[in-house]
Amino acid sequence: MSTYPTVTASEVSPAGLDDAAMTQAARRVVDEVRSAQANWAELPVNARAARLAAAGDAMLAHAEALAALVVEETGKPLAEAYSSEVVGVADLFAYWCKHGPRHLQPRHGLVPSLEMPGKKARIERAPRGVVAVIAPWNYPVAIPMRSIVPALLAGNGVVLKPSEITPRSGAWLVEQLRASLGPIVGLCAGDGRAGASLVAAEPDLVIFTGSTATGRKVATAAAALGIPCDCELGGKDCAIVRADADVERAAAGIAWGIVTNAGQNCAGIERVAVDRAVADRFIPALVSRLEAAAADVPELVTPRQKAIVVAQVRDALGRGGQALCGGVPEGDAKIAPTLLTGVPRDAAAWRDESFGPIAVLTVGDGDEQLIEAANDSAYGLGASVWSRDIDGAVELGRRVRTGMLWVNNHAFTGALPDLPWTGWGASGTGITSSPEALEHMTRPRLVVVDKQSGIEPWWYPYGDRMVDLMRAVVRKQREGGLGALLATLKSLKQRERELAAGAVRR
Ligand code: NAD
Description:
By secondary structure, the chain is an alpha/beta fold. 48% of the residues lie in helices and 17% in strands. It has helices at residues 9-12, 19-42, 45-60, 63-74, 78-103, 142-153, 167-181, 192-200, 212-224, 247-259, 276-293, 303-318, 348-351, 367-374, 390-397, 435-441, 463-479, 483-501, and strands at residues 107-109, 119-127, 130-134, 157-161, 185-187, 205-209, 229-232, 237-241, 269-275, 322-325, 338-341, 358-364, 379-380, 382-386, 404-407, 421-422, 424-425, 431-432, 442-450. Strands 10-11-12-9-8-14-15 form a seven-stranded mixed beta sheet, with helices on both faces. A five-stranded parallel beta sheet has the order 5-4-3-6-7, with helices on both faces. Residues 134-138, 143, 161, 163-164, 191-192, 195-196, 199, 209-211, 214, 217-218, 232-235, 266, 353, 355, 381, 421, 423, 427 line the site of nicotinamide-adenine-dinucleotide (NAD). Residues 134-138, 143, 161, 163-164, 191-192, 195-196, 199, 209-211, 214, 217-218, 232-235, 266, 353, 355, 381, 421, 423, 427 line the site of nicotinamide-adenine-dinucleotide.
């Protein structure tokens, strides 16, 4: 049985330190990780994979403790702590340790062998160095871990800045990883100021997951220091229900998309666009699914978030909207799953991220109106299309400006490590999970070796040989024939021989 780390929210909150002292403290963490990272990066990738697999085993031996800690900090049901956090971590280690090394192999680069003989190019994936992972509270384990595992495998060190709302889950992860891997992982705990200090301490890459407003601040601070920053931000996902949808499946899946994690999900369904042809059957089915889910939906994690959601519902109702279920909660009651209709498009419930178990529904006549509604958002994380016509649904869904499209499902891919999690527009520039994420976590390092002897035709002094060669190369590229190039190269070789023998002057 694992014991929890002894860290508590008050201990990690760096009250009393000024900005300079906090940056200094963060710099010490970054420096410690940076010195350990140099040796870690020297290991062959398969050795790193083996060490990480062992670290994953050690961590998952305490799966019960981890799930209990998540429940304690976030209030989510144990079933969700397991399904969306613990199981995801097991999958992460398994996937990256098995498939990651292949995605990190160097590739050969093409060098034209005729005009540039004897040269070989290889493009390696070099680690960036120290990666700062700044995390939110809604999935306090799965979200940081989906970046930490591939970042370490790629040879980086990592400093985690967990959310101040879930500090112990973050501290637990770092403690476990350090016990297995040593100080290639560090912790920078505290609130937003601690996050800002970590950026100011000049890591080599920032991977930020959180709200759009904070993400833009973090990206600006990182850019001022010339540090790349990957941002996974907020969302306002839309589910499109076409006329030919399987109504029961759509209602059950969309209800889950609205209320999972009490709606505190960046890819939660917050808007529903339904075709009028199916609205009469779909809407009651959705309402009944939402009402049935009420008992399983926990309270929101913070009173601040609850106040935002309640204000959106109140505003929508005050502006002519109607609650088909749920509504403004009475007194201290938790927010029941809420479906709003008749809400104007400029209302906060339509425009802003809700991050609670509520959604706005609109009815449209045909695909064009459904697409128009789905695209009426600055966010672009995910969208789903619910239809029996799979090809048509994919074609339609491609017209929604989002990074992820699901047909007849929604957002369940968040913990699948081979699939990118990525958004467009106000949802950020980030890519987490998948081999595509390695593009950000590494830098290409070009290594070229030349076994050619003698003088290159493009070295000084130029003379005619350079111009002859370039003309022949252009002719080859335009006309496809090799003859002129080969003839030029032959005459250049002859000239080199004559030069070497002193028969001609340069
Ligand atoms: P948040 O933006 O308030 O905080 C995120 C993290 O940033 C926290 O650790 C916080 O302490 C830190 N932070 C705050 N100010 C900072 C600063 N100036 N410099 C550096 N770090 C700073 O977000 P949150 O409330 O924790 O999380 C909810 C938000 O995250 C929602 O908008 C949600 O959509 C988004 N989110 C997005 C994804 C995704 O993959 N796109 C996933 C989960 C959550």
